[in-house]
Write a structure and sequence with these properties.
Elements: E1 2-8, H1 13-23, E2 25-26, E3 30-33, E4 40-47, H2 56-59, H3 66-79, H4 86-103, H5 111-130, H6 147-151, H7 153-166
Antiparallel strand pairs: 1-4, 2-4, 3-4
C-alpha cells in the first residue's frame, strides 16, 4: 500500500481520479486546495490490484511440450495459407513465445519477452477486429481492448490459451 499525491488544475481532478482508480485499488480521494488557491492537491491511498490473470503454470498446465509447439507453429505458418485458423495460429504462437520467454534469463524484457509481447499484440488485434468479447472465444474477464489487456498482453494470451485448451 502506498500514498499518492497529485497537484493539478481543479478541472483535471475528475480525470486523474478516474485514471488512478482504473489503475490501482484506491481509497476515497481527499482533495485540498494548494496554498495559491489556483490548483488542488489530491491524496489517495493505493494498492496494486490483485491479478485476475491465470498464472503461467495454470494456463499452460495441459499444453503440449515446447518442442511439439515449435513444430506445430512451423507447420502452421505454412498452413495459414491453406486454411488453418489465423487466430489459432497466433494464439499458439504467442503462447509458445510466452512459454519460451518465461524460461529466459530475462523473462520480462529480454529478446524472447519482446517477441512474446509482439505476438500477443497481434493476437489482440485479431480478436479486436473480429469483435471477440464476452460472447466469443475471448470470454475471459478481459477483452482485447481492456486497459489491463493492453498493459499486460502476455497475460491476455495466458487467459485466452487457458480457455482455448479447455475446448481442444
Amino acid at each position: 500500500m502506498f500514498e499518492i499525491r497529485v497537484i493539478c488544475a481543479p478541472t483535471e481532478a475528475p480525470e486523474i481520479t478516474k485514471a488512478l482508480s482504473d489503475t490501482f485499488a484506491t481509497s476515497a480521494v481527499r482533495q485540498r486546495p494548494t496554498r495559491d488557491g489556483e490548483r488542488v492537491r489530491l491524496y489517495v491511498t493505493a494498492d496494486q490490484r490483485p491479478s485476475h490473470w491465470p498464472a503461467p503454470e495454470a494456463a499452460y498446465a495441459t499444453a503440449p511440450s515446447i518442442i511439439s509447439e515449435i513444430g506445430w507453429t512451423a507447420r502452421g505458418a505454412r498452413g495459414c495459407l491453406h486454411g488453418i485458423q489465423v487466430r489459432e495460429f497466433w494464439l499458439r504462437k504467442a503462447a509458445l513465445l510466452d512459454r519460451i520467454a518465461l524460461t529466459d534469463d530475462d523473462p520480462v524484457s529480454g529478446d524472447a519477452a519482446t517477441l512474446a509481447v509482439e505476438a500477443a499484440r497481434r493476437l489482440m488485434e485479431i480478436d479486436h477486429a473480429a469483435g471477440l468479447g464476452p460472447s466469443g472465444y475471448a470470454d475471459g474477464p478481459y477483452t482485447p481492448d481492456h486497459p489491463d489487456s493492453v498493459r499486460e498482453p502476455r497475460s491476455y494470451v495466458r487467459q485466452e490459451y487457458a480457455i482455448w485448451i479447455r475446448h481442444h
